[in-house]
User: Which sequence fits this backbone?
């Protein structure tokens, strides 16, 4: 019996070592094609190289070990796991010659009983979007592309709602921060819940658009009493430029969204000073500073 136990243990350890080697080889291959993509100069070349990246993302992320693998060597693609370990996002962008962007994202759900992970592809339509973006009901097949860098899970009843904060390099003149709420149901991802309240208006997402060389900071603060999303307020450099978002800059004030239990409620002109609970220390010294927005090329 003892020898059988040793045999099974040896086989188990061998399989684990083999799996670790396999996922590392897949990471190396994915990194190889990513480097080729990032070295591409023309839109046509980028499109061609990105097909290889997509192939390797789908192959690699289906591997059961990919859900917990750190992917430390990959610097030009975002990999982020939700705090509740329910899913992982694999997310990247490609800057075009006209400085617009194309976005790609896969939501990875861990496989059952060691089986392959399940992937849900997001299909970007951001370059063909019509007005009323903040009210639009979207899903993974009609997705306003962004590179996400924050996931906030909040339970409401029996369902978990994931608030995502993302970066959108809109064009050569302006950049956006995108706040939206995502739900997962089977093979479907939806961005369809109106959970951002601005006065009497309930929106499905909140968009901050501003001058391309300005940095807008977004901070999430959670305590036993409240959830807060705090962010720089932007306004036009001149009143005559109202509505021309490529001329909007930070003005030293802040806004915030506070979770009420049912939705995120906007608090205009939020006071970010004070105790550690309200981000005063973190925001100190950032007022009226301009920072070049880096076209996303690293993990957030």
Assistant:
């Amino acid at each position: 019996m003892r020898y059988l136990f040793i045999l099974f243990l040896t086989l188990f350890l061998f399989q684990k070592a083999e799996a670790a080697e396999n996922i590392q080889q897949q990471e190396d291959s994915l990194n190889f094609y990513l480097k080729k993509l990032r070295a591409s100069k023309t839109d046509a070349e980028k499109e061609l190289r990105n097909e290889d990246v997509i192939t390797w993302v789908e192959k690699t992320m289906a591997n059961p070990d990919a859900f917990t693998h750190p992917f430390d060597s990959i610097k030009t693609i975002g990999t982020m796991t939700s705090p509740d370990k329910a899913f992982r996002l694999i997310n990247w962008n490609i800057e075009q010659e006209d400085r617009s962007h194309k976005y790609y994202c896969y939501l990875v759900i861990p496989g059952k009983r060691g089986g392959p992970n399940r992937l849900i592809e997001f299909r970007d339509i951001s370059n063909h979007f019509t007005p009323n973006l903040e009210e639009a009901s979207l899903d993974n097949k009609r997705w306003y592309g962004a590179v996400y860098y924050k996931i906030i899970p909040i339970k409401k009843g029996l369902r978990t709602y994931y608030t995502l904060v993302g970066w959108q390099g809109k064009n050569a003149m302006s950049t956006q921060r995108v706040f939206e709420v995502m739900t997962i149901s089977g093979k479907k991802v939806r961005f369809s819940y109106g959970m951002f309240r601005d006065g009497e208006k309930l929106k499905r997402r909140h968009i901050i658009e501003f001058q391309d060389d300005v940095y807008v900071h977004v901070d999430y603060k959670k305590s036993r009493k409240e959830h807060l999303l705090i962010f720089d307020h932007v306004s036009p450099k001149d009143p005559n430029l109202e509505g021309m978002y490529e001329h909007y800059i930070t003005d030293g004030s802040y806004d915030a969204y506070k979770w009420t239990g049912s939705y995120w409620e906007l608090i205009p002109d939020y006071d970010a000073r004070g105790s550690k609970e309200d981000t005063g220390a973190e925001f100190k010294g950032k007022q009226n500073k301009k920072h070049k927005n880096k076209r996303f090329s690293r993990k957030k």
Notes: DSSP finds three helices and 16 strands in the chain. The first helix runs from residue 2 to 39. The two ends are 50 Å apart (CA to CA).
